[in-house]
Each structure stands twice: as C-alpha cells, then as structure tokens.
Design a protein that fits this description.
Blueprint: H1 6-14, H2 18-38, H3 40-45, H4 50-67, H5 76-106, H6 120-123, H7 131-151, H8 154-164, H9 169-175, H10 180-194
C-alpha cells in the first residue's frame, strides 16, 4: 500500500476524502490522548466527562485538518496539537463560565455585604480590560510574534509554539517525534536566540 505524505492527505481532505481524514487520524490520534490527559484534572474539577472532552478534542482535530494552510510555517502535527488544545481549553473555560453563572444565580450578587450597603457585585474586581489596553496588548503580541518568526528555524518554531502552550518537554518530544535530548537542545537554542528580544 502506498505511503501518503501529509500534504497529499491534506489535499485529499480538502476534496472531502474520508479515507484521508481517517489515515491522518490514525497517524496523529496520540496527540488527542496527550492533550486529554493534560487537561484531565481540569475536567475533573469542572465535572466534565472525559468522553465529552475527547469529543471536543476530536472536533478540534477535524477543524485542524480542514483549516490547515500548507504555506504556513507550522507543521501539520503542530497545527493539530494547537487546534485540539485550543478547543479543549475553550470547552473547559466555557464550563468555568457556566459554573460561575450557576454560582451567581445561587447567590444573589445584589446582597448587601456591609453596613454601608456595598453589594457583592461591587466588591468583586472586574477582569475586563479597556479596549485600548486590549489593542496595545494585541499589537505587542503581534510584534513579538514577528520577531520570533524571523529568529527561529522551522523546527524551533514548532517547539516554541508547544512550549508557550504549556506542553512539557516530554510531550513535545512525543508530539514532534524527537528524542528528549533533541528537544532539550532545541529549547536551549530558542532561549539563547530569544534572550535579548524586547518589544
């Protein structure tokens, strides 16, 4: 049987070929296992069934196959990892929001908590930053991303993307099919290259 390259399979996926999707899933389904395992504690805390979490991870996997841009700097493997993690993280975050909503409904935020009549809602600090702050933050991130793209090699970018998304060096080695020593050396190079990067 012919061994297909990732780019050939992605082209077939774009033509709605289910066999190509299945081949890519068989090749990279270990990524779903790593990420679901990574967020197991969070799922337990928010009373999320692990099967639900895995389903969300699979939706992220499918999204990655459909939206992967072969002209991008990231490898398919890294892109799948980031899409799956983003989907799982958002699912847990939304569960957190739902939990907050339930708590708010259970305890009225308009209840006075002091003799002066201060309510619970007034005592809770707001997490919302101003649109100006958000814009400055987004510009800073974009500028940093451009500097990183110029400094790092292709494999270093893959490792960096996973590092900044809180993957351990062991996970990175497994996801990128690298030895642990290769990952440690790559991380050391990244740190050296980015040591003096400033916004």
């Amino acid at each position: 049987m012919k061994e297909f390259q990732d780019n050939e399979l992605i082209n077939l996926v774009s033509e709605k070929n289910e066999d190509a999707s299945n081949l890519l899933y068989e090749k990279y389904n270990y990524i779903v296992d790593i990420i679901v395992n990574k967020y197991k504690k969070g799922a337990y805390y928010f009373s999320i069934d692990l099967n639900e979490l895995r389903q969300e991870a699979m939706v992220g996997f499918s999204d990655a196959l459909v939206s992967f841009d072969q002209d991008s700097n990231a490898s398919l493997k890294t892109f799948i990892t980031l899409c799956v993690e983003r989907r799982v993280r958002n699912y847990i975050r939304n569960s957190d929001t739902l939990k907050d909503k339930m708590l708010r409904e259970a305890y009225s935020l308009d209840t006075p908590i002091s003799d002066e009549g201060t309510t619970l809602v007034e005592a809770i600090p707001s997490k919302v930053s101003s649109p100006e702050d958000k814009m400055v933050e987004e510009e800073s991130i974009k500028e940093l991303r451009n500097k990183v793209d110029r400094l790092l090699s292709s494999i270093e970018k893959d490792v960096f993307e996973l590092m900044v998304n809180d993957f351990t060096e062991d996970n990175i080695a497994e996801i990128l099919n690298m030895s642990k020593k290769q990952v440690y050396n790559t991380v050391a190079r990244i740190r050296m290259k980015l040591k003096d990067v400033k916004i």
